Amino acid sequence: MFRSHRRGLTPSETLLVAAVMVAIALAVFWRFTGEPGVERRRVTVARVNTIMGALEKYAIDNGAVFPTTDQGLRALLAAPDREPRPVNWRGPYLEDERVLMDGWGLPLQYVSPGNDGRPYDLWSHGADRREGGSGADADVQSWNRTTLIP
């Protein structure tokens, strides 16, 4: 019977195993942490989509009327005390006021009525806080479906 006299791994085998382990650790790390700007953009997109759904529910309950700019998005958390008061407020339409902030911790922007005949405009200017941009700096806009892709 043939027996090997080797014990353990050779230096090159040890290096190979270590490299594989580092590669796996980095893949897992990046998968769960991701790039901070990209993750914050994903949070912003998710929050804009959540608010859009809440605004639709608000409008359904209140005769196709959306909160005014003056009432703001807080109308989704508590019945507005400013005119025009909703006729059939059944909220809260959102459970957590943190949803009203973008991924960078600033309030999402809201106006109603919106531009070009839209009932409202809801947006964030992204990481750079300026209109336009790309990547994490790109705007997230309720009226532009291509910006609502994380």
What key attributes describe this structure?
single chain; 150 residues; mainly alpha; Glycoprotein, Type 4 Pilin; 3-stranded antiparallel β-sheet; 2 helices; 33% helix
Strand order of the largest sheet: 1-2-3
* Secondary structural class: mainly alpha
- Could you state the CATH homologous superfamily? Glycoprotein, Type 4 Pilin
Low-confidence stretches: none
Query: Approximately what portion of the residues adopt beta-strand conformation?
Result: 5-15%
CATH topology: Glycoprotein, Type 4 Pilin
Order of helices and strands: HHEEE
Biggest sheet layout: 3 strands, antiparallel
* CATH class identity: Alpha Beta
Distance between the termini: 61 Å
Fold and architecture overview:
The protein is mostly helical and 150 residues long. The chain has a single domain (36-148), classed as 2-Layer Sandwich (Glycoprotein, Type 4 Pilin), CATH 3.30.700.10. Helix content is 33%, strand content 6%. The protein has two helices and three strands, in the order H-H-E-E-E. It has a three-stranded antiparallel sheet with strand order 1-2-3, with helices on one face. The longest helix is centred in the N-terminal third of the chain and has 26 residues, at 36-61.
